[in-house]
Amino acid sequence: MLGEQHTPPYTPYESPTPSPLPDIRPPTERKEEPPRGLPGRVKLLTILFLIVCLLAGGAFFLLQIWHGSSPASGGQNLAQAPAKPWCASPQGLSANFTGFGITGLSSHDVWSIGAGIMHWDGSKWSVSFRPLSAQLVLRNIVEITPDNIWAVGEQLTNGFASHPFTVHYDGKNWSVLTAPDGAPGGKNTLVAVSGTASDNVWAVGFQVPTRGPLSSLIEHWDGKRWTIVKHPEPVNGLQFTSVKALASNDVWAVGYGSVLRSGKSVNQPVIERWNGQGWNPVASPDLTPSGGGTLYAIDGSSSSNLWAVGSASNRLLSEHWDGQSWKIIDTPAVPPDNSNWLASVAVSSSGSVWVVGRVRDGSNAFQPFIGHWDGHQWQMLQDTADNAGELDQIAQIDGQFWIVGIPRSSGGHAFIHVLCP
Q1: Which phi and psi (to 5°) does residue 53 adopt?
Q2: What's the domain range around 283?
Q3: What is the domain-level CATH number for residue 73?
Q4: Total-model pTM
Q5: DSSP 302-366
Q6: For the segment 84-125, what is each residue's pLDDT rounded down to a tens digit?
Q7: Are 176 and 166 in contact, with CB atoms under 8 Å apart?
Q8: Separation in Å, CA 315 to CA 202, 293, 390
Q9: How far apart are alpha carbons 388 and 360 in whole angstroms?
Q10: Contact, 32 vs 343, CB < 8 A?
């Protein structure tokens, strides 16, 4: 069994003295109050229902409903939240699970990435790929087809230098494939991968030369080799954190970098798009006046329905692309709004959007965050039965949504659960 490695899917590279962001808190959103004074019969039925749920084991409970912005703020999906959204994990799903990232096309064909790569066949996890060296660090995985799976990361050395690391599964075997350094002799890291075909795979990350500033890195697999693709650097210290390929001429990458505002360095999200000929920046909301922001993940069902998530001034951040422009969709304000972020987003073909991440509670401890957008409002859900401390990724797999994260208690298996809408 692989050893535990509770590393988030993306760890931002920071300089030794990063500039702190000001703590600017938005107004608290109104929370819908539950009805009071229910008749005794309804109370009794409610108690019986809760007992049944507890006996079922592993259920999630809807705790609060948060009203977001109106459809005019950018939301265009009208799908309603499922009446019974959560189901218990399949038997044995948590046993021997060690990953922090997940991908799959079928509930009987799921791949997890962590200290190595593991496969779920519907009944058990098994080790599929184990790095030969601890210096090979895996960071992200995508299953394009059952015989076309990619994982990317970083090959460390005994010094500062590192190299992009990619490994490919052809349905039978894993093969390590060399990817070029963007900064020879420096640090070169791939943190995310996406693709649509055997000759259209994209990986993004960052590079740090031996002398000079940090910058972003984009590489493309054309079916034969990895090549570095030039792209704009609209901000300083750009780091790409996520990539989503929709077609050979429609690929999106998100991340963040810094800009100067009133003599201070402030983070600003960056979104770029590949149109088949080149990469171009796409305008996104300017977050620098309110303290800056970052994007950590992107997903979408089409070129007119994309979502990107992250953090803005320690608050949860979500943005929506409707085919014309990116707009911020107000997310729940979770007091004390300190170190809150969204790490991942999954968008279904029906337009339903799920996000996961973490929030810091009043006792200064991290709690998992799960949110659902139905086109009009957010529903906030929390895990009350399992052992999640923070959530790293949510992925749509065969009509279900699989969630992985870090356990609240040390020494336990990484958290994994399934949403069955």
Answers
A1: -65, -40
A2: 62-130+231-419
A3: 2.120.10
A4: 0.81
A5: ETTEEEEEEEETTEEEEEEE-SS-EEE------TT-SS-EEEEEEE-TTS-EEEEEEEE-TTS-E
A6: 456 656 667 888 888 999 999 999 999 999 999 999 999 899
A7: yes
A8: 30, 9, 15
A9: 13
A10: no
